[in-house]
Q: What sequence folds into this?
């Protein structure tokens, strides 16, 4: 007879309430039913915290009885249960959280920051690696070719653009378009990085 104590296999579905489908998938995965492995939820979901779910224990007991597990197999299950109690969670259950814990370092790209003035006076603050190509592409979208009022090269075009967008946030109209005063435009013409 398998006791509750022996069969405490515990999990919590990250970000969502417990549901039977996940319990069934986890059980099938735990008992190595390969056909269900692709359905184990992994995207932004992970076994996060160890807690006892009585229904899992009941289902596992039923599963073990129904499939006539041998003592050796039950011992292996109990070994995993003990590892769970000690805070060890199998790798396959934590791949998403491991991915989340690795921070991607932003790659700095050299390029240009440009300031285009549209015929209505709006200023576009943008970034590009190919200045001439970018200006001509923007010109195609507008009724009148915009005027390049200033540009500079930078080793980190994304960072530089972000700083300028933040600096002129109160003048933002939408997206990368700003309504700047003549005084601000004159200041822009002195920027070098």
A:
């Amino acid at each position: 007879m398998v006791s509750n104590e022996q069969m405490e296999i515990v999990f919590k579905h990250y970000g969502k309430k417990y549901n039977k489908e996940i319990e069934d998938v986890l059980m099938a995965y735990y008992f190595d039913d390969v056909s269900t492995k692709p359905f184990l939820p992994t995207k932004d979901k992970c076994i996060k915290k160890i807690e006892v779910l009585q229904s899992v224990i009941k289902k596992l007991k039923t599963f073990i009885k129904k499939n006539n597990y041998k003592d050796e197999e039950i011992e292996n299950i109990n070994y995993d249960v003990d590892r769970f109690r000690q805070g060890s969670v199998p790798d396959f259950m934590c791949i998403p959280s491991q991915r989340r814990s690795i921070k991607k370092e932003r790659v700095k790209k050299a390029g240009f920051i440009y300031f285009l003035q549209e015929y209505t006076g709006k200023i576009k603050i943008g970034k590009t690696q190919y200045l001439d190509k970018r200006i001509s592409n923007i010109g195609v979208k507008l009724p009148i070719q915009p005027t390049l009022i200033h540009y500079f090269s930078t080793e980190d075009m994304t960072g530089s653009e972000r700083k300028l967008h933040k600096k002129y946030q109160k003048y933002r109209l939408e997206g990368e378009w700003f309504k700047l005063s003549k005084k601000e435009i004159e200041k822009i013409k002195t920027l070098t990085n």
